[in-house]
Amino acid sequence: MIKVLFLCTGNSCRSQMAEGWARHLKGDEIVAFSAGIATHGMNPHAMAVMNEAGVNIASQHSKLVDELADVEFDYVVTVCDNAAESCPTFRGNAKVVHHSFDDPPRLARDAATEEEALEHYRRVRDEIRDYVATLPESLQEAGDGE
Prior knowledge:
By secondary structure, the chain is α/β, with parallel strands linked by helices. It has one domain: Rossmann fold, CATH 3.40.50.2300. Helices cover about 40% and strands about 15% of the residues. It contains six helices and four strands, in the order βαβαβαβααα. The chain has a four-stranded parallel sheet. The radius of gyration is 14 Å and the shape is globular. The model has no long low-confidence stretch (mean pLDDT about 90).
């Protein structure tokens, strides 16, 4: 099994969704982790829309990448531009792959209703699901391209 870290700025939304999808869809191939450059706590909207899709991420928690310093990852997937720019160095031979997703809290900031806000989370949730469904093959191809 390969070890994959999904990394974003605050480890509250996108990386948590990616970890949840990887565990749900690819648990027989991938050992999934998520972390952030900072911690912003678990985003309740992200948790809600993942629950709608049948994936419970309530047992996950927001953590700093430093908390996983002893894990030797095969791949680190940065899911936001800030994380890609601030990506730390990892032990071993981890290949870093960048695949950015829109930031649902930023998109939902100006939403007129709760439902409108959740639509942003749902769209990004589904985009992350579709990306995770391509793993680990797409990671291996991205890693070979470097």
